[in-house]
Each structure stands twice: as C-alpha cells, then as structure tokens.
Amino acid sequence: MKPSEPWAIYAGVWKILKKYYQHPIRHMLGLGVLILSSTLLVVSVPYIMKQIVDLSQSGVSQFSWDQLWHLENLYLLAACFALAWFGSNLLQHLSQRYSAFFLISIESALVYKGLENFFNLSFLEQRKIETGIINTDIWRGAEAFGQLIFTSLFILIPLVFEVFMMMWILAQSINISFALIFLFFALLVFAMTLIVALKSKDIYSTFYEAHNRINQFFIEKVQNHYDIQINAAQHYELKNFAQRVKEYQTEKSKSHSQLMILMLIQVLSVAIFLFIFMLFTVYLFEKKQVSTGDFILISSYIVGLTLPMLRVSHSVMGLKGDYISLKKFYHYFQLEKVQHQSTEVESSDMFYRFQHANLHLGKHEITDFNLNLEADRCYVIIGQTGIGKSSFMHYLTGLQQIQAGQLYYKNINITQQFSTDIYHEIAVVGQVPTVYSGTLRQNLVHNSPYHYTDAELIYWLEVFQLTPLLSKNNLSLDDELQDRYKSFSGGEKQRISILRALLKKPQCLIMDEPTAALDEQTAIHLMSVIRQHVTTIVMISHAAYAQQFADQVINFDELIQSK
Questions:
Q1: pTM of the complete model
Q2: Beta strand residue intervals within 362-391, DSSP E
Q3: Which partner for 110 in 3, 101, 142, 437 could form a disulfide, CB atoms 3.0-4.6 Å apart?
C-alpha cells in the first residue's frame, strides 16, 4: 500500500461527504471548542484541589470579606472547585450529545451518497454487486469515517492538549524537571500504544470478509425461502449454514483473541506508567520535595490520564479496521459510472432504429442487426427462454450499449450514451413486479410528473381490479403499507407495476412479461386498457393471446438463426 493511499481515500470520502453534509467544518469546530473547554476544566479541578489542601494545611481558617475574591481564600477555592467540577461534567455531557449528532450526520450523509452512487453505476457493475455485501460495506464505511474523524480530532488532539496542560501546571506548581519527566513517561506510553496498534497484524480484513460471506449466505436463503420450502430443503440448507456458522465463529474468535492480546499489552503499558509514576510521587512526598496538595495533584493527573489513554489505545486499535471499512466504501465510488447525455427529443414517427448494430442477445453475439420500431404500433417479442429478449430491452432502456453500428431513439443517437430526456417519454414494466414501501398513492404515482386526484386514482384501481386491496387490507390511499404489501399476490403486484407505468402517460411503453402472473381473462382486459391509452408498445410475452394485440411479432428464434 502506498503511503499516500490512506490520505487519498480520506480526502476522497471527505469530498463525497461535503456534497451532502453542508456544514461539517462548522460543526467540527463547535465540537472541538466543547471538548477542549471540558478538557481544560478537567485539568483545572485537581489544581484547585491542590490549592485547597495546601491552604488548609497552612492554617487559613478565618473568613474575611476583604479576602473574599482572593485566590488565597478557601471559600472561593471551594466554590471554584465545585463550579469547575460541574462545568467539566456538563461540558462532557454536551460534548457526548454533540458528537452523537455529528457522527449521525456523517453516517446518514455517506449512506445517502452510497445509494446515490449505486444508482449512478453502470448496469454491468450493478449486476456484479451482492445486496447484502454492499449494504454492510456502505453502512460500516460510513460509520468508520465518522470514527476516524472523531478519533483523530476529538480523542487524540484533546489528549495531547490535556497532557501539555498538565505539564504546564506541574511546571508552575513543582518544577520544570518534574514536568518534563511526567511528559516523557506520558508520551512514552502513548507511543507504545500507537506502535502496538499500528504494527499489529491486519486482523480486520479476514473478519470483515467472513462477516460479509455469512451475511450474504443468510440473505440468499431468506430471499429464496419459497423455493426452499416447496422443495423441503430446510434441513439441507440449515446443515450448510451450520458449517458456515462454525467457520465464521472460528475466524471471529481468532480475530477477537488477537485483539484481546493487543489490548492487554496496551492496558499493561498504561498500568506500568501508573505504577512507576505513583511510586515516584510517593518517594518525592516522603523526601518532602512535594506538598500534600502536590501529591494529590500528581495522583489525580496520573489516574486521570489512564482512562483517556486506554480510550485512545482502543480507538487507535480500531483505526486499522476503520480504514479497511473506508477503503471498501470508497471502492464503490471508483466503479464505472453510467454516462448520460441530455438532448431535446424531437417528434418522429420512428421510435428506435438499429442500423448495422453489433450486440449481445443472451449468449449470442449478433452482427449487422437492423430493426425499426415505429410509432403507433404494438410489437410483441417472442422466443425461447435465454434467447436474449430481456437483453434486447436493456438496449432500448439504456442499461447497455451496442458494441458497434448505430442506435437511435427518434432524433437522438444513443449508440454510446442514453439520453435522460428519453425517460420522460417512455415507461418500463420489468419482469419482476415491484411494490415499494410507503403508501399506496406513492406506489401508484411514484415517478409520474402528473398530479392525480383521489377520485382519479380510485377509478384506475377499479379499472385494474385492485379496489379489493383497500377493503381487505383496511387501506386508504395514504396509509403506510408497512408489511402488508408482502401479502399481495403476484398478480396484484403485477397490476400495480403496470398501473404505475401507465400513470406516467408514456409515449412508448416497454414491458417484459407483464401479464405472466395474471389469468388470461384479466390479462386480455388489461391489454385492451393499455392499448387504449398508449399507442406505441414493445412487449415481451410468451402468452398466445398477446399476439392478437400485436401489429408485428418479432420472433427472436428466427432472427438469431438468420444471423
């Protein structure tokens, strides 16, 4: 790994963050002021206690109004001690709340950008990505970036500030030599914790990969529960899963054992610092080189440093894991993006034109392919499974580009880049019907630029024979579907998908097996409705009745044989 690589990744993710999170630096400065102010008060409390102890041993006992606001007054010191303690704890709680807000803001911003980036990836890159893995990588990476910032700016820097403030007070209270010895030991322990953490083996990559594997396997089984159930394969799948669970347990236990050893080394380093310096302080106290107040001050500082040092050691230990998570996160932003153009669409009686095109249809590579799809016609595409019908749809919708030749949509050359303006004119119904979370209204209007009244939506639900959904699920148009949509039948989901496309009022409707889950009577009824409202249709269908609506049937079996 190049030394500059971590910084390049950090800078890259920072740029991504700022595109959504508008004021990160402002919030960082606010949090920094809170933490440093809290640290300053934490350092001040033992010093005030030292002053109180030393003054109490000097025989100061009488109250005097003249001395009320002098630092030599015990009453003032007692009040300052209480106020400093209250202020330090108050600022610590405020810092915790503020840091939680800050980390949540970072996490949510990066998760948003992660999904946005996924949508911008090329179709081929999207198909390579496993759902469970990208979900884990994006969330873990977003959290890791927040932890990297928090550890470096709000744990390491405040600790350094705290050590140097302690050194300065010790130099003023005792002498510079003692302060330098204190600083030396503190920096030595701090350096040891960093060395142990940064020189340790990379135990995070193995752990994360193991977690991703079992997570993906789990999601795969949940997604395919129907096939597993009907084939009575539960025992077989659980047996396989049990083996993977054992492998996961072994790898995770090994990783945690290595982490525990490293953390014990770091705890031991801090304990040695505590032990040596406490003995040294006792020795100085016995030799009367430090006062009782000095002894309390030094003891408080030593004990007070142990917790921050342990916190730093644990945080630094996690930096390597955070960096690995961040690297995985950033990797998705380096993948090939889809390239779109923006060109005004002109009216034409020809929707699509393939001219001497080379393209892949299924496993077949087709050369010198020529085809025109005209306006105001219904095309039904037929052919055996795997022949490339869905691949053909990918070229029409911009998911893939032809390898050679020319492809036009009306006046726009989409050979290399699809045009975003085309999406305003076409609607697509995919092979797998989709119902989204949200309300039924949101599912129907979805991405439509048109406004529909309640009465109009109810009318369309009646036309698509979907009104029983409202009564049997006790739904209105604006009720959240929550988990209820999971009980919708395949036919109901398919009709919702078709209606969603129809409500966009497309000039051209592209459909891939749109009525596969419907009975013939319902399918014929819906096709009649579609033909009344959309003049140009390109449809893949194996159903014999679909061809009665076709102006032209395109047989891919014959087309490929002729090539």
A1: 0.82
A2: 364-374, 378-382
A3: 142
